[in-house]
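Consider the following assembly input.
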Amino acid sequence: MTTSATDHRAASDAAGSGGLRLLDVTLTLGDGDTAVTALDHVGLNVAPGEFVAVVGPSGSGKSSLLAVAGGLQRPTSGTVHIAGTELTALSDKERTAARRRHIGFVFQQSNLLPSLTVREQLLLPLHIDGRLDAAARARADELIEAVGLSHRAGSRPHQLSGGERQRTGLARALMTSPAVLLVDEPTSALDRFRSTEAVRLIAEQTHERGTATVMVTHDTAIMNTADRVYEMVDGRLS
Amino acid sequence: MFLALRDLRFARGRFALMGAVVALIAVLGVLLSGLASGLADAGVSGLRALPVTHMAFDEKATSEQFSRSTVEQEDWQEWSGAPGVERAEPFGNTLADAQVTQGAEKGEQVNLAVFGMAPDSPLAPSPTRGRGLEDGGGGIVITREIADLGVEVGDVLTADKSEVRLKVVGLVDETVSYGHIGVAYADLDTWRHLHYGLPGDLPEAARRQATAVALTLEDGADVVAVEKATATRADTKEATFGASPGYTAESSTMALIKGFLYAISALVVGAFFTVWTVQRKAEIALLKALGAPTGYILRDALAQVVAVLVGATALGTAIGLALGSTMIGKAPFSLSAPAVATSSGLLIGLGTVGAVVAVRRITAVDPLTALGATR
C-alpha cells in the first residue's frame, strides 16, 4: 500500500519547491536465488517543514529507505526527487555533490569524528564544500546555540554525553541548510527521557527551518512527535 | 588539511611514534651517506682531483688497470696528435712503503700512493707549503694524510727494499687519497724508480713508460682510431674509480645497505598508514556520506602523510648532521649537501609511495556503511 503517493498537497509541494519525493521505488539486493527485496514499490512524499516517522522492526527495509532517499544507494527501479532534482538521474559525482548540498544525515549514535570539537564538527561539511567563511562560522554558532550546546562548543566527542552527541549530529546535519533531513535511529543510544528530548528537538528544527524530515526508528514511543507516521514491513510502506 | 591536522594533534602519541621511526631512519640515512662519501673520498679523491676527462690504459688491462697497465712514450705522443684530443700526457701510479730516515718522526713507517707526472703538466700539484715538483731531483709533494703522521717539508723518506731516497719538497694541505692511502706526487723519473724498485740509473726502456695516458678530450671526440693504433682503451675518469682498490666493493655495499634502509622505511610507513586507514574506515564512510568526494579525503590523507614524513625527516636529518659533524676526521666520513638531500628526498619520496599504496583503500570504502550500527 503506497498511499502517500496520492497525498495531493505533499506531492505538489515536494515536486515544486523542494522536499522529498520517492516514486515507485524498488530496491533488490543480491541476485539470483539469494535476492532480497529491501524496498517494494515504495512511494513517499515529504513536504518542506514536514516531519515523517517510519517505524518498523529491524530488517524491514528502513535503512534501505534512508540509503536510497539520501543518494547513498541507487534503487533498482523508481525515481527519487530532492529539492526538485531527480537524484536517480544523476551521475555518482553529482549525487555526492547533491548529498553535500541538499541532504542532511543524522546517524545512529551520532557518528562524530573523534578529533574534532563540536564547533569543528559543524564546520566540516562546509569545508568539504569549500564554503568555510565568516557566514558559515556564524551559522555554526547559531546552530550550537539552537541545540543548546553553547557551553560545549570546544568539547570533543569523548567528553560529551550521548544526548549531547546526538544534538551535535543534528546541528551538523543542519549546517548546509539541507532540503531533506534523514534521521537514522536517533534514540538508539539514549534513555527514555533523552529520547523524547532529542526527537522533540528534531521536530522543532524541522518546522522552524522547513526541512523535509524522515526519521526511521524501531522505537514506537517517540513516533507521536511526528506529523505523519508510516509503518514499514518487508519493504512495504503503509 | 582540515581533518588531517586535527587528527595529527588528536592522535599525536601514535604519530609521534611513527615519526620517531622515520626520524631515526633519516639519522641513519645521513650517517650512511656520510660514510659512503667518506669512503669514496678515501678511495678516489686523488683521481677525482686530477684535471683530466679520460685515462687511456693498455687494452690488455681490463681490471685493476692502475696496477696492471703500462703505456709507452709512442702512445702518449700518438694521443697528443690525435683529433679531438686537447691534451695527453703520461701518468704513473704505484703504491709504495717507505720509512722516515731524516726528520722529527725518524723511523715512522709511511704508506704512499705515488702519482707520477711531468712537473710542468697541469696534473702537477700546487703546494700550500714548500716547492713544486722538479725533474730528476727525487723530490715528492705530500698531502695532509701523510703530514698527519708527522712528516714535514724537508724530511727524507727511504723506500723499503729499493732504498730509493725521497725528499719531501712540498705539502698540499688537503686530504687527497687513493685506495685509502694518502697521495704523494712525484716527477715521472722518481715515480719510475719507485715503481720498478730501482735506485741509481734507470734503464732506457723504463724511462719511456708510464701507467696510463692522462687525457683531456673534447666533447664527443671520436678516438676509436687512435685507440686502435696505440692498443689502448680510454675510460672516462669516473669509470677509472672502479680500478681503485676496494672502491667497487665499498660503494656497492653502501648502496645495498641504503637500498634496504629505504625499502624498510617505505614498508614501515606503508604498514602504519594501512593500519591507520583501516582504523578510520568508519570515519571515511561518514565523510563520504556527508558528501565528501573521494579526492577530498585522499588529499587530506596524503597531506597528513607528507606532513609526518617531511617533519620527521627534517628532524632526523638535523640530528644526523649534528652527529656526523662530530665524526669528520675520526672516520672516513664526509657530508656533502647533494648526498644528504638525496638521502632525505628518497626517504620522503619512498615513504610517500608506501603510504599511497595504504591510503588508496580509501577509495574502496562504501559510504553506505555509515548507516546502521557501524560503531
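The radius of gyration of chain A is 17 Å. Ask yourself how this observation constrains the way the partners meet.
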